[in-house]
Design brief:
The chain has 274 residues and is an alpha/beta fold. The protein has 8 helices and 9 strands. Helix 4 links the parallel strand 5 and strand 6.
Length: 274
């Protein structure tokens, strides 16, 4: 285990114990290191560090991890701490570009009332938004109410925790209905995505018959979705879907018999800036 402070580079030092008779005894001085977990309010995440007690006092004095990193010298930080410092700086720079004044409006966050385990994700998003200065409300919408609201762009919540499922083994069954601009107004496309480049990729993927070319197309589409951050993916899992033995030619037949790819995500409605 490293004996170097990740915030100050303070490590073991060699020296002498000196008696009153000026006798010198060679010894090694070790820093007082502590394993701590610190939270970045800007990034909305916690990080584990091994730092000295003096560095921990400095973090507290500067008001937390973000305040410490803003004044920390890059040359004394560990590679892990330096990456976090740069991430915080990038996040603050992106927030500074935001054309919204956080105090001018309230974020409307929703989760499906019949799915109680989605509520903690909505509450976490609310906490992160409030840390950035936004006022945010959380509402548990009954499924019928949610599907009614998303038919209108104005009534669609700013962000919704929703579970999606692809019941057959093809990316078109998940990507097209969720992110193609023509599908806005359905429960699966609460993002109201409107990206001509993404539309073109999804249309090409739907029409292409060569498997290797389809992989390239959908990889590009996936990267575009990630870069635009219109959806944050929370979890992915495999759910079992029983198929009656009397049913022939089921869509889930073959190596994926009885299974469908499922996931849970935060869908962000695209906002218009006046």
């Amino acid at each position: 285990m490293s004996r170097v402070c990740e915030f100050t580079s303070k490590g073991p030092m060699s020296g002498n114990n000196v008696s009153h008779a000026n006798n010198r005894t060679r010894r090694r001085f070790l820093p007082n290191l502590n394993d701590v977990t610190l939270v970045s309010e800007t990034l909305g995440r916690s990080f584990k560090f091994r730092i000295s007690a003096a560095a921990l006092r400095t973090v507290d004095h500067r008001g937390g991890l973000d305040g410490f990193m803003s004044k920390a010298k890059p040359e004394v930080l560990s590679s892990k701490a330096l990456k976090i410092k740069r991430d915080i700086e990038k996040a603050k720079a992106e927030l500074a570009k935001c054309k919204y004044n956080p105090s001018d409006f309230t974020l409307d966050l929703a989760w499906i009332a019949e799915v109680p385990y989605e509520e903690p994700w909505a509450l976490q998003l609310q906490a992160n938004a409030m840390e950035l200065g936004f006022d945010a409300t959380v509402t548990g919408l009954p499924w019928a109410k949610f599907t009614e609201q998303v038919t209108s762009w104005e009534n669609t919540p700013h962000a919704t925790v929703v579970s999606v499922v692809a019941n057959f083994p093809d990316p078109d069954g998940l990507l097209y209905p969720q992110w193609h601009s023509s599908t806005g107004g359905t429960w699966m496309s609460a993002e109201w995505a409107n990206d001509p480049e993404l539309d073109a990729l999804l249309e090409r993927g739907r029409a292409e018959t060569d498997a290797s070319k389809r992989v390239e197309i959908y990889q590009a589409a996936n990267q575009l979705i990630i870069d635009n951050a219109i959806t944050l993916f929370i979890t992915d899992f495999v759910g079992m879907q029983p198929v009656n033995s009397s049913v022939s030619n089921a869509q889930t037949a073959g190596t994926l018999t009885g299974y469908g790819t499922m996931g849970r995500n935060l869908s962000f409605r695209e906002l218009q800036i006046n």
